[in-house]
Design brief:
This protein is mainly β. The chain has one domain. It is about 10% helix and about 45% strand. It is built from 1 helix and 5 strands; from the N terminus they run ββββαβ. The chain has a 5-stranded antiparallel β-sheet. A hairpin with a 2-residue loop joins strand 2 and strand 3. The model has no long low-confidence stretch (mean pLDDT about 90).
């Protein structure tokens, strides 16, 4: 199993759509379920701020719409 690209505490930018509305999310944890690995994340910007969601690690690591803003400590 390969190491995920992002770590707990990392701040990520989500860029999608023509307006490129800035949306940020923080990686809360990394976990496995039924042989797949996931990031648990929380939106850090308005329009969902504080809402938790999960994202498949393989999808997010290979995605062109997610990018690292700041590494967590």
């Amino acid at each position: 199993m390969t190491k995920p690209q992002y770590n707990q505490g990392d701040l990520l930018r989500f860029d999608v759509g023509a307006d490129k509305l800035l949306q940020l999310a923080v990686v809360i944890s990394i976990f496995s379920d039924k042989g797949q690995r996931f990031y648990e994340m929380r939106w850090a910007t308005s329009g969902g701020a504080g809402d938790r969601f999960t994202g498949n690690i393989k999808y997010l690591d290979d995605s062109t719409v997610w990018s690292l803003v700041v590494r967590g400590q």
